[in-house]
What does this fold into?
Amino acid sequence: MAEEAFFSRKYLTRLIYPLIAEQFLAMMIGACDTVMVASIGEAAVSGVSLIDQLSQLMIQLFAAFATGGAVVASQYIGHKDDELARRAAKQLLTLSALTGCFFILVCMPFRKFILGVFYGGVTAEVMSNSLIYFFWILISLPFLAVYNGCAALFRSMGNSRLSLKVSVLINLVNIVGNAVLIMGLKMGVAGAGISTLASRVTSAVLMTALLCRKKGNIIYLEKIWKIEIRFDMIRKILKVAVPSGIENSMFHIGKILVYSFMSGFGIAATSANAITNTIASFSNISGNAIGLASVTVVGQCIGAGKKDEAKKYGRKLMRETYIGMFVGCAFIFVFAPYLIKLFNLSDEASSLALGVIRTCMVANIIIWPMSFTLPNILRAAGDVKYTMVVSNISIWVFRVLFSYIISQWILARFPEKTYYALYGVWFGMYIDWLFRSVMFGFRFHGKKWLDKKVI
It folds into this structure.
């Protein structure tokens, strides 16, 4: 009874289902880009995929800020300190926007050097496409950072429907932009980049305007033109954001390093990997959505001092995650051959993608939720250092090292089919997931994560 008294089933449904729909729409942006770019050729697909992986390193920092701000705001809401929640919101958006501008200033003049360091082994055609796409993605980063921050703040208030509506709009902007610029004007990867920029500008402007409304919002912005730096509030946000940022950054640096040596497996492997990532990401939608919802639910429980409720809701959210993941993964496992045909791959790349996708779906059902949804529950309570340490150990010892060892073993056994080495990369990743799931599972079943303080 106490559980239902704090968060009703109706509240959870209204929070989680819009997030699932929003995650699906977010995946559709990437999928539409990939499908339309695939009409140009595999070199274009590979170029976009490599930049998507590199830009994730920066995007994850924005996600860390958003998580930090959402945790602080959720706990203040649970503690009934609405004014402090509003102060945290403004600091979050200021920090996010300035960081996005910083990345443009630092990366834009050196983008060719940066790509050469990470992806020097790719063909000249792939590198040319990567440079063009990277230019437009860099310009879009401040707008993406602001959108992520606004969306996280609306979620902390329990309002996930609004960001869903905005997602519908920005998907339309992106799809129409792709159709006109890629298919109509034949602008190639530049068209995909410009469409992504347009959708991110639209989302940032619209979400900021909606957050300025006082009516119906516990958290709202006032005098957005006036930059205010409150170091006490920034410290609270960074208390969560810094460990999360380090964790996310190390995770994606590790992925980029894996992509770096994977680029030597040939264009069939890089194309198959890009398509596998696109299709597999749809199976994680429910897990990602519930992970976002847990920041609101568990954060408010901790802010209200209800530790037992936090743990009960944690268990409930994990059960929902496993159900959702099973449904999504089973569908993709069965229909993978038909989904792959949408991407205009060679027979070699299509066959490879099918094999990798099906192994991924099995691993996703069994160990992905404990690896990625569960740590969000721990972070919502403020237990960010533990998740950071576990993730950093896992990414370097298991994902990077084992991906390299297994892929090199496969290369030695099948020297005439270098693209088979892609299996080694993915099996190294599954070992990484397994280690995380064990460590996070033990932590959740204990009590230490409930004793952390943010506010």
